[in-house]
Structure formats: structure tokens, C-alpha cells
Write a structure and sequence with these properties.
single chain; about 350 residues; alpha/beta; Glutaredoxin; 3 domains; 6-stranded mixed β-sheet; 11 helices; about 10% strand
């Protein structure tokens, strides 16, 4: 009995000790603060617009808004990992612009460099919300108390009072659901979309826009010795117009292939095989899903985030399937050998192939 009593006392001490340790760790992990907190008032500040209206005089987004629901997204730094979150917030703002105003405010200590760099960043992200540069430097508006350790600070307000605040040191798409929920609550959105649905729609619309850009670029560059195909009568902003344009492009490609085939020498005999062109490494995949992903990967208009998403989709698709993994290795080996895609795609693609081979 004495032994059992001692064991029980020892157990109580252990539980108390672990509880104390847990409390200490909990206290050590302090909450990060950035910007005005819920219930506090948002005040006026000045920005310079960087989009289509760049070059205008300083503007005050708070005064312009007149107390209506607003999301102020302060961007302290830009990393690829935060792009999906920024785009998802932007997509919600675009879909609910009648209920909520979304302002993307970039912060930088070098105004000249920022005015040159950030428009390209915004174009890469394909932002639909107004994006601007704070005139108050890297610290942002002085009375907002923004924390430079946070790459992203989202301040949501209504009637010039903060309703929600998100100070994100390492922002990612996992933060999207709670932010979208806060935006919807403030905007009075009774049927808000899920963050995952917003992200999916954003990917789809971005893909279509990039496809139109690539198509326009290709249309403007006629093949040597050939008249350019006339697309002037097509409406490339409509689905029907895009389908008709694709049909014309397919017809032109088929015509070019026929011309090339007509100019090629006949297959060599056994004795002359040594003159044949060296075979390319790798192999074209036969799986239709992999073919589609490979085509997305080699687009010259891809940004780095798009390349990463495509590779993540491929990895998820082929996982656990040796035959599909082999096709992926063959397909990516070939396009990397041919130098298709962006410089970043070459680097990321090679690392991806090496990973699959292991």
C-alpha cells in the first residue's frame, strides 16, 4: 500500500510538472500583432496607385470608401508561397465587389524601385483589385502600427471600425478559409463561397486569360514565308470566338506539318541508318491527363507559382502508380532536353524528375 501511495504521489507530481511545462510553452508562443485590432478605428492614409491609373496624385482609400465594408491587404513582402492566398482574397473581392471593397497596399522603403517592380508582380498575380503603394515607406501608415515581421497583414473593417485582423508571418493558402469567413461576415454575405472553390475558379480564369495572351502573341507572329491567319473577325473575349480561333490554329498547324512532311527525306535503309538524327531522350506520355499537364508546364507565359502548382498536380496524380511515374519521367525528360518552358521551369522540372527517379 505504501508503494502504491508513493507511486500515486509521483504521478500527481508528473502531471503537475507537465502542466507547468505546457503552460510555459503556451506563454512563450506569444500572439503576433500587426495593424489596428478589432474594435479600433481605421484612419486615413495616402497611397499612389500602381495599376492602369498609375501616375495619378496621392489618394486616400479610407476617405474614398466612406465607411463601407473594406479589406485592407498590406503586403510587406512577396513570396511565391503566398500567391495562392493573395489570389483567393482577390477573387472573393472581385466576386463580391458590390458588398466589399478590396485594397492591395504594397509597402517598400524604395519608392522608385517599388513603382518599377510591383506592377509586374501584380500583373503576374493577375490582381483584379486596386493595388497601390503606400507613400509612408516600408513601415506603412504611421498610426497603423504594422509589423514588418508579417509578410501579410489583412485588416477588415466596416463603418471605419476594425472587425477582423490577420497578422501573418508566413501566409499560405491554409489561412484562406478564416479570412474569407471574416470578409463575408463583415460584408453581410449570406451565401459566401468556400475558399477552395474561389481558388479553383481563380485557377480556371487565370488559365483562360493566359491562354488568350499566348494565342494573341502567336497570332501576331506569322511564320516565315507565310501570310498570317486572319483572326480579326473573331471575338477572343467569348467562348465561341476562342473555339473558332483554336480551329483555325489547328488547321494551320496541320498545314505546316504537311509542308514539313513533304520536304523531309525518305526513311533511310538499314545501310544508311547512321545518318538518321539522334533519338531524343525520354518519351512522350500516352496518358491524356499527363499530356495536358505537360502542355501546361511548358507554357512560356507561366509564372513560378503556376509551374509549382503543375508539378504538385503531377506528383499527386502519379503517386503510387509506377506506370504513370515512368511516363512522367519520360515526358519531363524530353521537354527539359528541348528547353521548353521558362528558366524556372527548367530548374524546378529537373529537380522534379530527379525526385521521381528516386
Amino acid at each position: 500500500m505504501k508503494l502504491m501511495t508513493k507511486l500515486n504521489v509521483f504521478a500527481v507530481y508528473c502531471i503537475a510538472a507537465f502542466a507547468t511545462i505546457g503552460t510555459c510553452f503556451g506563454q512563450a508562443k506569444e500572439k503576433v500583432y500587426s495593424g489596428p485590432q478589432p474594435g479600433e478605428k481605421i484612419t486615413s492614409f495616402k497611397v499612389v496607385e500602381l495599376g492602369a491609373a498609375a501616375g495619378k496624385s496621392k489618394i486616400d482609400p479610407i476617405a474614398e470608401n466612406g465607411g463601407k465594408p473594406i479589406a485592407l491587404v498590406f503586403v510587406h513582402g512577396v513570396e511565391r508561397s503566398m500567391a495562392p492566398l493573395l489570389q483567393t482574397i482577390d477573387q472573393y473581392g472581385a466576386e463580391r465587389k458590390q458588398l466589399l471593397r478590396t485594397e492591395m497596399v504594397f509597402l517598400s522603403g524604395d519608392r522608385l524601385a517599388a513603382e518599377q517592380r510591383f506592377p509586374a508582380v501584380a500583373r503576374s498575380l493577375r490582381l483584379q483589385s486596386r493595388f497601390s503603394l503606400s507613400v509612408d515607406g516600408a513601415e506603412g501608415p504611421g498610426n497603423y502600427g504594422l509589423n514588418k515581421e508579417c509578410l501579410l497583414t489583412v485588416v477588415v473593417a466596416k463603418e471605419d471600425r476594425v472587425t477582423a485582423n490577420f497578422a501573418l508571418v508566413q501566409p499560405g493558402i491554409a489561412d484562406a478559409p478564416k479570412i474569407i469567413e471574416a470578409l463575408a461576415t463583415t460584408a453581410g454575405d449570406r451565401d459566401p463561397p468556400r475558399a477552395a472553390d474561389l481558388e479553383a475558379r481563380r485557377r480556371e480564369s487565370t488559365g483562360r486569360a493566359m491562354g488568350r495572351d499566348a494565342m494573341r502573341s502567336e497570332m501576331a507572329r506569322p511564320a516565315a514565308g507565310r501570310a498570317a491567319t486572319d483572326f480579326s473577325k473573331l471575338n477572343l473575349e467569348s467562348e465561341a470566338g476562342l473555339r473558332d480561333a483554336v480551329k483555325l490554329l489547328i488547321a494551320e498547324v496541320q498545314s505546316l506539318r504537311a509542308e514539313l512532311d513533304a520536304g523531309l527525306p525518305k526513311p533511310q535503309t538499314e545501310a544508311g541508318k547512321g545518318n538518321l538524327k539522334e533519338e531524343l531522350p525520354g518519351a512522350a506520355p500516352t496518358d491524356q491527363r499527363l499530356i495536358g499537364l505537360l502542355r501546361r508546364f511548358i507554357q512560356p507565359t507561366n509564372d513560378d507559382a503556376t509551374v509549382d502548382r503543375v508539378l504538385a498536380d503531377v506528383e499527386h496524380y502519379v503517386k503510387g502508380d509506377q506506370a504513370l511515374t515512368k511516363q512522367a519521367i519520360g515526358g519531363w525528360t524530353r521537354v527539359l532536353h528541348l528547353k521548353y518552358g521558362t528558366p524556372y521551369a527548367h530548374k524546378a522540372g529537373q529537380a522534379f524528375v530527379d525526385k521521381l527517379k528516386k
